[in-house]
Specification:
The protein is α+β, with helices and mostly antiparallel strands and 482 residues long. It has 13 helices and 12 strands. The C terminus is likely disordered.
Length: 482
């Protein structure tokens, strides 16, 4: 109905235009026949370029009739006295019709070119969207959403054959064509439903169909439809390649974790094993030595056996924490006492290193998991010992402030660069300057996870010659799972 009204309005304006030119040329500003003929022809061309051939043809016929009636003698009749005027009138009609046809054709070509340009721009926008898609939700669903959004479709359904999943997008429902989608993905065929303005096409990777795409909305050229399908195929393959890369990276990291833990355990176990072996060898080599000497050797072996057991427990705990959620078993605890216990447990490792422990006597007990907090502090202290010069002191301070209990571990090593400070808590990360020092690159990452599970945070501040790790726990701890 709206199209009919629009067409009638255009015809009315065409008739009015011819009438205005006739009135002006015949009564208002009388001109000769040649001038008015050019005016009619110009008006016909304007109508053709603006609206189309039909309106221009109607204008041409009306202009020819008006030309004959008002400007060719005898004026006021449709009779032409001079035969030459018949030729002129026929030439005018033919010229106006041909010019109208050419102008309308040029307009159509311009409109087609503009539409093709818009289609290319949409395809380009879609290709960019594929590259910029994030992993916030399933990739095929994001592809369907982008197609609906960029091409202005009311409904889009993407069927992923490998996952056997349908992904819907668009403001309207798209029901009743699931069987066609699956058949298109299996057989590589297409379906159309002109009544609902729908189309289903196969999505191919090479010659093999891997998915199918259903679109509902405005008409779409086959070239654009195939362009969308090809881009969807590329997007799906890109997503699968990324997924495979993540799986490979996960496997690689798992192997790296296993190797790193074995290397770290082997290095850490050598010290207590060496002491135990030395004590037992001394007892076996000299069985008649004094009782005091034997007792001292047995104490060393006993202490180192306990140390070895703690190392094994820590290694197992680290591996478990890396692979699973952290279960907090909180109980009232004295953080200062925990710090002193950790320092004592590392006595045989640090040898003659000076560890200065300073605790706030007014520090309250807080709820925490003693076993996990010990492991976190042990990682910080072990880190400070390994990365600072032999003989340099390590300072540990337990302080209260701003509703939190803080443990600061300070060493006087070479320091950590600003670049490394931003990455030091990442799994497996080790600074290039630390590659020669044994370690797995997991200690600080696990310590941070433990502290975060206690609703606290772990930070680092470093400059050349001094590094401080700060562990902060809320004074009111209730414990949770992370």
């Amino acid at each position: 109905m709206s199209g009919f009204i629009r067409g009638a309005g255009r015809l009315s304006l065409s008739i009015a235009g011819v009438s205005v030119i006739t009135f002006v040329a015949h009564w208002a500003i009388p001109v000769n026949a040649t001038t008015v003929g050019f005016a009619y022809l110009l008006f016909v061309l304007i109508v053709a370029s603006t609206w189309g051939f039909f309106e221009a043809a109607v204008s041409s016929v009306l202009a020819t009739l008006a030309f004959n009636f008002f400007f060719f003698p005898p004026v006021g009749t449709f009779t032409i006295a001079d035969p030459q005027n018949w030729v002129a009138l026929f030439s005018f009609l033919t010229t106006s019709l041909i010019a109208s046809r050419l102008s309308a054709a040029a307009k159509r070509r311009a409109a087609d070119a503009m539409e093709r340009q818009q289609d290319l721009e949409r395809l380009y926008t879609f290709s960019r969207a594929i590259l910029l898609t994030e992993a916030a939700e399933p990739f095929p669903k994001q592809l369907a959403q982008k197609v609906a959004e960029i091409f202005g479709l009311s409904a889009v359904v993407l069927y992923d054959r490998r996952a056997d999943e349908l992904y819907h997008a668009g403001p309207s429902d798209y029901e009743g064509m699931e069987s066609q989608l699956r058949e298109a993905a299996l057989q590589g065929i297409s379906f159309t439903d002109p009544a609902h303005n729908r189309v289903v096409t196969a999505v191919r990777l090479g010659s093999n169909p891997i998915a199918s795409l259903a679109l509902q909305g405005g008409p779409m050229p086959d070239s654009v439809l195939q362009g969308i399908a090809n881009l969807v195929a590329i997007g799906l393959e890109r997503a699968r390649a990324q997924e495979l890369a993540r799986e490979i990276e996960t496997t690689r990291q798992t192997e790296r974790l296993r190797t790193a833990l074995i290397d770290a355990m082997a290095h850490d176990f050598k010290t207590p094993l060496t002491s135990i072996k030395a004590a037992i060898t001394s007892l076996l080599a000299t069985p008649d030595q004094a009782v005091e000497r034997k007792t001292q050797m047995l104490k060393i072996a006993d202490q180192e056996a306990d140390h070895l057991r703690d190392l094994i427990d820590d290694a197992i705990e680290m591996a478990r924490l890396e692979a699973a959620a952290i279960d907090i078993k909180a109980e009232p605890s004295d953080l200062g006492e925990i710090v002193r216990d950790v320092a004592r447990s590392l006595k045989t490792v640090i040898d003659d290193r000076s560890i200065e422990v300073t605790c706030d006597p007014n520090a309250p007990e807080i709820m925490l998991d003693r076993r996990l907090i010990k492991l976190a502090i042990k990682q910080l202290l072990d880190n400070a010992v390994k990365y600072s010069p032999p003989g340099s002191p390590v300072e540990i301070r337990v302080q209260t402030g701003n509703g939190a209990l803080n443990v600061e571990v300070t060493d006087y090593g070479p320091g950590i660069s600003a670049h490394d400070q931003r990455q030091i808590f990442q799994r497996f990360y080790r600074a290039p300057s630390a590659q020669t020092i044994p370690g797995s690159g997991l200690g600080l990452s696990i310590a941070q996870r433990i502290i975060q599970a206690h609703q606290g945070n772990l930070t680092v501040a470093s400059r050349p010659g001094e590094t401080t790790f700060r562990l902060s726990l809320p004074a009111e701890q209730k414990g949770k799972q992370a």
